[in-house]
Amino acid sequence: MRIFWLGMHKVLKPTELRSFRELQVEVFNPAYISPIYDQSADLTVDQGQPTTLPADIFAQLMAYDFFYKPITPEISSILNTYFDAVVVTISADWLATMLRAYQGPIIYRIYGQHFSLSEKIIDIGLWRTLMSRENFYIVPFCPESVENEHRWFLDLVYDFVPYQIPDDIFDCEKKWRFEDCRSEIATSIPNIQNPYFSHEYHKFSSCFSEQYFRIYGPQRAVPNDARLVGTLNRSDFLERIRRSAAFYYNFSDEVCYLPPIEMMQLGGPVVCVRGSLLARFLGPRSPNVANDVPEAKRKLRRLLGGDRQFAEELISAQEETRQRYDREAVQCRFREVFGKLIADIHQRKASVKLDGSIIRATEVCSDGSPTVMIPLHAGGLFGHRNGRAFAFEGIPRVVDSIVSTLSEGNAVRCLVSCAKSSTPAVYDFFIDRIKGGDVAIFELDYQDEQRDSPHAVKLRLDLVSTISKLSIVTSVFVPHYYLFPEFLLLTKRLTLYLPDYFPHLVPSEIFDKSRDVDARNKRVGVELAGKAEFILTNSSFTKNYIPDAGFVSVEDVSKVIVAPIPFLGEFRAGPLTWSEARMMFEKVGICPFLFYPTANRPNKRIDFLLDVFADLRKLYPSLRLVLTCHLDTHAPAREAAELHGFSNEIIFLPRSSEGVLKWLYENCVALCLTSIIEGNFPPQILEALMYGAPVVATNLPTVEEVLGPLSSKLLLCKAICKEDFIQGVKAAMNARDVVLARQGEVVDILTSKARKSVFRSQIANIFPEYSAHEGDL
Predict the structure, then answer these.
(1) Do residues 693 and 422 make contact, with C-beta atoms less than 8 angstroms apart?
(2) Three-state SS for 483?
(3) Is pLDDT at 147 greater than 90 in this prediction?
């Protein structure tokens, strides 16, 4: 077997490249002959590497710049003819070049980076290629380094293999001595002419002006900073850090460069600031980790001052991290994983099958099962944050519940549409159902922001035409009253989701760009409502005013089906990832906070919430407010924030994952819901009750409708009554346990089996495809 190993790193070539060759396979490594400077590159041209390639082929490959040039058809032909597999290291751009040129198995070997590789891969247009390619494998060096990658990316991971520090470090391991130390702290920032490292250098210098630092790492030029040591040969570098009192790891992003690990192998203490991958390895309670710069300085001063006991405490605490990179353990794991992978290199199937514009699981065939089509190709409904797919606002979260219900027992399949730029997020959001064959994606080839361009409009009209002709699609569920006007042309059975219509409830306000736009939107909604066989809403309150709002006649009100919104976070609110936990620590900290997750729309009265918050801060100066919206989308909210001089008091967490929402509910002083009108029982109240957050909210008709006399168990307030809301928040702060105990009866009512069965039975009334199967459930 012959492998092409695309790597040039001066640590990897003498370690990992050698380990591949020790697996008894032939490995070719091209020379790094690019004029682009890289401080980590091994510039050796290994003309003597073992090879059975014909001499002319070997010469051609050695003379070609594989790192920063497109691969020509001639070189592509050589790769496909002479190599059984390719290993690409580090760079997604190198991977893209190789994927275009080479058709065989590819292993993407990665070691941690300061950005999301998933997002990089999407940005450079590789998502479809990777998802539909057979025999593609990702091998990271540890699970923590890919924790925030997207789910589709993680599904391509074969296994984890650590990588070792250079061999020469083991000749001087454990040679750090407390008594040999100089009054210096070592750190490392290479090549500060590079924009990334330049940013790190300036960030470091803005925090640390102390002259006891020595900044190591190869440099092309050394600025006027006496702390910058510049380029050293390897033995001098190891001796210099061995004589340092400690090593301070200054990078705070999710990557781990090797110098601090080398210091650990030498036996010396390492301090790092929270946020880096190294801090993740060490753990949040490790004495090596400083929560902020002042704490880092205090710890470094102790080491400079000769605190032997503290040094020994750090050295002991970092031992497990040091062992991750130990030569013997790494090589054993390398042989185990890569030996098996190479033996099974042709076993992996593609993740998805591409059928024109339709994306479905590879192993799933279209067997004639009835299919409900759901358009979701409006921009901004889906996204990723900290690696997790999320659905923004209510539309796709309710659709999620409908898809979940329809696919129970493989009753009905769903086809959801999205713009090409949203496909990875939509795929991740429905990934388990896609794998099970319950959901497929219809991809429209445009970007979210282009949805009103002539090209996008044509594709949207073509989608309706295609759906009208697809015999397998038995009906369409339109989840918004004006975002998908093209479905007025549909020739199949249609259901419209209309949870509320705020321009009717609050006629004095503008809900889109202008009154003309609001009127145009309503015309679309009224026509869709007229065309729809059923209209799904979530409360009798909405059903009762829909005729007055002009969407249906009194005679047609029977086609309005009421189904209560289920608990939307039930299946997706997992524990916080490490990065989410770090984000909560950095943004929210330990201050008490009020929480209201909602869009900044006129009926939500965020301006009034800010007035309440301003008065509460006079009583509780440390109180903060967490919002999931921005203030600019409705001017009164922005003006209220400016009036009160809020700058650091409001924490904005837009498009938060279900896990983050759960954490915010669980840790807030209270949900403070100031909306003056809602079309259904507010899902925020249901979520707050489920997650154990005190509820301080306007006494809305939709709450009374569902809870009746039990409404008194909640801290309900008169609309826009500042005194009521302040008293409610004070009660939540001063008697939290009592408030939560009173809410318990409400939780029982809202989470009863009957409520879920009502939702399911109403879905059965709307979709005969499902109702035919419902009796078997």
Answers:
(1) no
(2) coil
(3) no
The pLDDT > 90 percentage for the chain reads 65
Cβ 520 vs Cβ 415: under 8 Å: no
Residue 520: the pLDDT is 93
pLDDT, tens only, 4-14: 999 999 899 99
Distance CA 146, CA 161 (A): 13
Say what the pLDDT of residue 299 is. 97
Output 336-340 pairs: Cβ under 8 A, ≥24 positions apart.
337/139, 337/158, 337/159, 337/160, 337/161, 338/19, 338/20, 338/23, 338/139, 338/161, 339/23
Judge whether residue 657 has pLDDT over 90: no
Residues 6+ apart with CB under 8 A from 524: 481, 482, 485, 488
Residue 50 region by backbone torsions, left for phi larger than 0, else alpha for psi between -120 and 50, else beta: beta
Residue 439 tokens read as 């959901």
Between vectors from CA 334 to CA 318 and to CA 252, what angle results, nearest 5°? 40
Q: Tell which residue, 90, 132, 128, has the closest CA to residue 110.
A: 90
Please give the structure tokens belonging to residue 540: 């009798």
Cα–Cα distance for residue pair 133/353, rounded to 1 Å: 9
User: Interior CA angle at 671 toward 657 and 616, to 5°?
Assistant: 125
Identify the DSSP state of 119.
Answer: H
Kindly report whether the global pTM for this prediction surpasses the value 0.90.
no
**How many Cβ atoms from other residues are within 10 Å of residue 749's Cβ?**
15
CA distances from 146 to 110, 113, 391, 425, 729 (A): 9, 9, 22, 17, 40
| DSSP, residue by residue, 192-238 | TTSHHHHHHHHHHHHH---TTEEEES--SS--S-TTEEE---HHHHH
Task: Give the dihedral of Cα atoms 586, 591, 595, 600; nearest 10 deg.
Answer: -60
What is the Cα–Cα distance from 547 to 542, expressed in whole angstroms?
9
Secondary structure of residue 366 in the 3-state scheme = coil
Q: What are φ and ψ of residue 763, in 5° steps?
A: -60, -40
β-sheet with 534-537: strand ranges across: 352-355, 358-361, 439-444, 413-419, 371-375, 473-478, 493-497, 534-537, 560-562
Residues with Cβ < 8 Å from 215, sequence gap 6 or more? 187, 188, 189, 201, 204, 225, 227, 228, 229
Angle at 444 between CA 442 and CA 449, to 5 degrees: 135
Higher pLDDT, 768 or 610: 610
Contact in structure between 455 and 446 (CB atoms under 8 Å) = yes
Model pLDDT for residues 261-311, shown as the tens digit of each residue: 999 999 999 999 888 899 989 988 999 999 889 999 999 999 999 999 999
Element (DSSP H or E) covering residue 278: helix 277-282
Tens digit of each residue's pLDDT (9 = 90 or more) over 250-273: 998 878 899 999 999 999 999 998
Q: Are 83 and 50 in contact (CB under 8 A)?
A: no
In the predicted model, is pLDDT for residue 509 greater than 90? no
Rounded Cα distance, 612 and 454, in Å: 46
Strand partners, 579: none
Separate counts of helices (H) and strands (E) for the chain: 33, 28
Q: What is the rounded CA–CA span in Å between residue 766 and residue 777?
A: 17
Core vs surface per residue 299-314: b (16+ CB within 10 A) or e? bbebbbeebeebbeeb
Residues in contact with 88: Cβ distance below 8 Å, sequence separation at least 6, in sequence order? 6, 94, 95, 98, 106, 107, 108, 109
The sheet carrying 26-28 orders its strands as 26-28, 2-6, 85-89, 106-109, 136-139
How far is the C-alpha of 685 from the C-alpha of 688, rounded, in Å? 5
pLDDT recorded at residue 472 = 87
Residue in 259, 299, 254, 257 with CA at minimum distance from that of residue 274: 254
Nearest Cα neighbor of 47 from 66, 33, 68 is: 33
